[in-house]
Amino acid sequence: MSAPVMGEPLPIELANATYAVRGRLQDGLRTVVELAAWLEAVRGRLALPLPDSLEPTTADLAGARELRDGIRALATAATAGSPPEPDAVEAVNKHVRAAPRWRELSWDPVPAAHAHSSAPAVPAVLSAIAQQAVDLFTGPELADLRACHAPGCVLFFVKDHHRREWCSAACGNRARAARHYSQTRAK
To answer: What CATH number does residue 87 fall under?
Structure first.
């Protein structure tokens, strides 16, 4: 089973590559094939282009997992209102520093900016996601970052509507069903 991709900001999508099925934690980035599938699923939202024939390495997988775990730790701390572990901060910063990026101008037939990096594709993309994590954790979206409180869910989301309480409609249904079951059982 692959990691969920739910339209959240990319750092949160990456953090959510650790998810739960029936209350049991799952790792959506166990193999380079799963990393390639996740990158393909978010390809259109990446700050840097990926080659058509993407073949991540085991080092790419280790880097993605390290960044994912760092972002999850930061999100957990932020949603709990507590300071994060320094290792989580360093994991994100390490990836930010790993790949210099710049934008270049083209004019064919209209002006456009194209992102470039001197690093290989996957480390460059992870670096861009790490930079987006820095922006998320230091910007106004942090106030809207939430941990889903549906039974058995371990995902994070950015609250984009004042009535949103869960990461997905399915989690909302589970939470309402659990609440109903609890209320009818108590009678």
So the answer is: 1.10.3300.10
Condensed to tens digits (0 to 9), the pLDDT of residues 156-179 reads 999 998 888 889 888 877 767 777
162: buried, middle or exposed (CB in 10 Å: 19+, 13-18, 0-12)? exposed
Distances (CA, A) of 10 to 38, 47, 66, 79, 111: 11, 10, 15, 17, 27
Other residues' Cβ atoms within 10 Å of the Cβ of residue 99: 21
Q: Respond yes or no on whether the N-terminal peptide bond of residue 109 is cis (omega within 30° of 0).
A: yes
CB 85 within 8 A of CB 73: yes
SS3 assignment, position 86: helix
Average pLDDT for 61-68: 98
Distance in angstroms (rounded) separating the CA atoms of residues 61 and 106: 33
At residue 29's C-alpha, the angle toward residues 166 and 115, to 5°, is: 90
Q: Model-level pTM?
A: 0.89
pLDDT digits (tens, 9 = 90+) for 97-144: 999 989 999 998 999 999 999 999 999 999 999 999 999 999 999 999
> 115 in a domain, yes or no?
yes
- Domain count along the chain: 1
